[in-house]
Amino acid sequence: MASHNAGKVAENAALLAEHGIQVVSAAELGLPVPEETETSFIGNARLKALAAAKASGMVALADDSGFSVASLGGDPGVRTADWAEQPDGSRDYVAAMNRVEALARLHPDRTAWFTCALALAWPDGHTEAFEGRAPGEWIWPPRGEKGFGYDPMFQPHGESRTFAEMGTEAKHAISHRAAAFRKLVEACLAR
C-alpha cells in the first residue's frame, strides 16, 4: 500500500483482507513519500502507486482521497491534506474543519462529498485507476470520534450520522473508498 497514512492503510487493508491480500505499507518498507504534484485524485494516486511499485519491485496500490465542498468550488478537494498542514509539518484536521466552516458558513448550499481514487501500479509502469464518491453534506459542529480527517463534519446522504459516528462496517458499505474498491475488485480481483 503506497501510503504513510495509518488511517488509510487500515481502511484499505480491511477492504483487501476479504480477498486474501495482505497489505504492507510504504512506511513499513521505508519508502519515501513522493510529492503530490498532480491536479486530480487519479493523477496523485497514479504518481504514488508508480513510485512505490518502482521502488519496491512489487505491485502497489495507492489511494488519493479528499473532502470537497460545493460552495467552496470543490475545495479543499485534491488539496485536502494541505488544508490541515501546520507550520511544523504536522496535520491538524480540527483546524482544517474550522477553516472549511469559516469559509462555507455564509453559503446556504451544504453539499459536500468525499472522493477516493485508487491506482494499482506494476513495476513495469502499467497502471489501472478507479474512482468512487460518497455524496452528502457538511455539518457543524463536527460529531463523532471514529474515522479520521474530515469524517466528523461529513454526513452522507440517507444517514443521520457522520462518518465519524459510524462503525467500520457501516462506513465501508457506503464510503467513497468502498465505491472505488468495488470497481477495483470487479476489474482486477473478481476473476
TrEMBL record:
<feature type="active site" description="Proton acceptor">
    <location>
        <position position="64"/>
    </location>
</feature>
<comment type="function">
    <text>Pyrophosphatase that catalyzes the hydrolysis of nucleoside triphosphates to their monophosphate derivatives, with a high preference for the non-canonical purine nucleotides XTP (xanthosine triphosphate), dITP (deoxyinosine triphosphate) and ITP. Seems to function as a house-cleaning enzyme that removes non-canonical purine nucleotides from the nucleotide pool, thus preventing their incorporation into DNA/RNA and avoiding chromosomal lesions.</text>
</comment>
<dbReference type="InterPro" id="IPR029001">
    <property type="entry name" value="ITPase-like_fam"/>
</dbReference>
<feature type="binding site">
    <location>
        <position position="35"/>
    </location>
    <ligand>
        <name>Mg(2+)</name>
    </ligand>
</feature>
<feature type="binding site">
    <location>
        <position position="65"/>
    </location>
    <ligand>
        <name>substrate</name>
    </ligand>
</feature>
<feature type="binding site">
    <location>
        <begin position="176"/>
        <end position="177"/>
    </location>
    <ligand>
        <name>substrate</name>
    </ligand>
</feature>
<dbReference type="InterPro" id="IPR020922">
    <property type="entry name" value="dITP/XTP_pyrophosphatase"/>
</dbReference>
<feature type="binding site">
    <location>
        <position position="171"/>
    </location>
    <ligand>
        <name>substrate</name>
    </ligand>
</feature>
<dbReference type="Pfam" id="PF01725">
    <property type="entry name" value="Ham1p_like"/>
</dbReference>
<keyword id="KW-0378">Hydrolase</keyword>
<keyword id="KW-0546">Nucleotide metabolism</keyword>
<dbReference type="InterPro" id="IPR002637">
    <property type="entry name" value="RdgB/HAM1"/>
</dbReference>
<protein>
    <recommendedName>
        <fullName>dITP/XTP pyrophosphatase</fullName>
        <ecNumber>3.6.1.66</ecNumber>
    </recommendedName>
</protein>
<keyword id="KW-0460">Magnesium</keyword>
<feature type="binding site">
    <location>
        <begin position="3"/>
        <end position="8"/>
    </location>
    <ligand>
        <name>substrate</name>
    </ligand>
</feature>
<keyword id="KW-0479">Metal-binding</keyword>
<feature type="binding site">
    <location>
        <begin position="148"/>
        <end position="151"/>
    </location>
    <ligand>
        <name>substrate</name>
    </ligand>
</feature>
<comment type="similarity">
    <text>Belongs to the HAM1 NTPase family.</text>
</comment>
<keyword id="KW-0547">Nucleotide-binding</keyword>
<dbReference type="GO" id="GO:0016787">
    <property type="term" value="F:hydrolase activity"/>
</dbReference>
<feature type="binding site">
    <location>
        <position position="64"/>
    </location>
    <ligand>
        <name>Mg(2+)</name>
    </ligand>
</feature>
<comment type="subunit">
    <text>Homodimer.</text>
</comment>
